Amino acid sequence: MVCSMVKKGLLGAALGAGTLFLVFGTSAPSYVKTAFNRMRQSAKDSIDPRFEIDRARNEISSLQPAFNQNKETLARAEVAAERLQKEIGEVQASLTQQKSTIEALAAQLRSGDYRLTAYASGSADVVKARLENRLDQYKATEAVLSEKQELLKAKQQMITAAHDKLDSLRTQRSMLLTRLAKIEARLQSIEASQEDSEFNFDSSALARAKEAVAGLEEKLDVMSHRIAIDQKYGDIEGSKAACADPARDVLKEVETKFGPAPASKTGNKSL
Predict the structure, then answer these.
(1) Residue 154 maps to a domain
(2) Counting Cβ atoms within 10 Å, is residue 158 exposed (0-12), middle (13-18) or buried (19+)?
(3) Which residue segment(s) compose the domain that 42 sits in?
(4) CA dihedral of 210, 211, 216, 221, whole degrees rounded to 10
(5) Are 180 and 60 in contact (CB under 8 A)?
(6) Positions of the chain with pLDDT lower than 50, given as ranges
(7) What are the tens digits of pLDDT across the range 2-15?
(8) Separation CA 260–CA 258 (nearest Å)
(9) Is residue 82 situated within a structural domain?
(10) What is the structure's pLDDT at 113?
């Protein structure tokens, strides 16, 4: 049963498409598209402006949840940036301490004082190994600091952009509400004017009438040009003789253009 209905529907669609092609030829899709666009525009024009005002107001109200969500995200980003800033301070303090240790070990190695502590002594190799280890650790900590600073910079840029977007969204929302209030006031003024008037002109009907007349004028122009072209060229075999204009003095035009014809000595020649 369902398959039969589907087949009938497809057959009807195919027949409809075939009919449109027979009537309009290759322009059928253009006609269908134009008809659809016109119906859609007509449907939009028939919607009550007050309904559209309510719809716009609802769309503006729908900005609030996104606004609140972005505020929450921004707050979390700011907390993360503050923690990262604290971590950077700790890393910088660690680097300062490591630098002091490195400088002390380097001074020991230069002076030949290899005491590791006040009660223990080592050798040049031991002090040198400790210095190398501390220096490598310092460089690794510097790399970590650089990464954290770059990350903080990116977070701060994102936070600044988020503040700008929130400010912009709030400003645009206020502007939209102001524009909507003006539209509503203007609509009330128009409705009041319509109530005072006894006349109600359908501008869309006038536009359609103008379009229909223009279409007829164009069609008649095409028919006129087609007749003139048929008279000039005939069919594809060129069998249709050209028709002379009885009201035209072509010989006089030739004499005016090229001067009087010379007297003929042998009489008229056949053309």
Answers:
(1) yes
(2) middle
(3) 2-46
(4) 100
(5) yes
(6) 2, 6, 118-119, 241, 269-270
(7) 455 545 555 555 55
(8) 7
(9) yes
(10) 75
